[in-house]
Amino acid sequence: MKFKEKVKAIQMRKYGRSYREIIKETNVSKSTISLWLKDIELTPRQKEKLLQGREISRYAGAKAQQRRRIERTEEIMNNAREELPNLSGNELFLPGLMLYWAEGAKSNETIKFSNPDPLMIKLMMRWFREICDVPEKKFRIALHIHEILSRKNAEKYWSKVTNIPLSQFQKTFVKPTSLGQRKNILYNGTCVICVYDKNLFRRMQGWKAGFLKRMSIN
């Protein structure tokens, strides 16, 4: 048995030191430390101090994580701005960027574009594939349809439009049919393109910021 280490561990615990601090000082496993110290009771003040220490540590960790996220976001956005000269020569780039800016999701770093027009959906699918290099497995499709429509037929229709298999479709949202909706026999619901990629969202934000700067709009 590591007698010296045990004595030191007990003394440290009696002074209100945390298990983490004791393990670091004695270089003994957590399971052994727990066994040695299981019968040592801390005073209410010592418990309060340890709790405050853990809260401070968690706060510091959260702030560090937040700082890393901000730094990473800035790095991605700066790199995206530098891509603009090359991307601007692609006739698909700007229309897709403007459409997403107008119709796409803007919060929670979630990429979602919804529209009932199949041609617009085809255009944006091409934009995500060719400009954003989104892997096929990352696409998810969600549908919003009226109850008058066949869910099965709508899903098959949009699967063909997007060229995304039904296995990558999310649960279809069905809503009550209005009188006006009954008159539009060509309506097949609204298609939502979803891509869950925070780094791509940040990259797209960088493209937008770079474009606005180039246009002297701020």
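(ticket continues) Second input and output from the same batch:
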Amino acid sequence: MLKLTKVSKIYEGKVAYRALTDISLEIEKGEFVAIMGPSGSGKTTLLNIISTNDAPTTGEVEIEGKNPHKLNKNSLAEFRRNELGFIFQDFNLLHTLTVEENIVLPLTLDGTPVQEMKEKAQKIAENLGIASIMTKRTHEISGGQAQRVAIARAMIHEPKLLLADEPTGNLDSKASKDVMTMLESINKKEKTTLLMVTHDPQAASYSDRVVFIRDGKLHSEIHRGENRQAFFHNIIDMLSLMGGDGNDLSSVRV
């Protein structure tokens, strides 16, 4: 589904900065993978390269057998719209639109008929428990509801790969748990491949495996197995082993 081969990223400047070094990683179709590591380890750079917001300096990225970085501007825009879904820490909702209008935004860009958009939005809103707030503006809803709206918007066009950047970063523990349960359910029911960058061991424990990055290089990975609580403790142990500053464990919630 997703294959990275020796991906490196160097930012040029007065002093060149190497953000990633020879990252090779494969993610199977339907897998849920979390990426963790200390601040400045290269997690976000990696996600930006996979999401095509940034390009690798060297190496190859393949999504469903295609290298999106070799597409022209129009083909890349279409690829991102059709193949990828995005969930962000700060929700990235448009405050001038209602919840429903935010959800159908990707379909609006594709020129989908209005009735079809409404039906799809209603169905996904019911699945995510936000059908009752469809006419509200984003300033009238809670953070947890806003993240559900963002998930609905990311899922409305049934992407092959869902990319989440700190999806629980702005949420309290109850809303975080709800959102992660929802993402796990989407992964299992829809068979959507999910890649998530997170600082939060609790959020990471919902994934099938966690890939750890340190200083721009792959450090290690651990797999979930049957027991999520044991997996959670393994994640914390690995983060402790890797070191980093206090902020890297600031969002631990048992």
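Agent notes: The domain at 2-245 is CATH 3.40.50.300 (Rossmann fold). The mean pLDDT is 90. Closing as not reproducible unless the customer responds.
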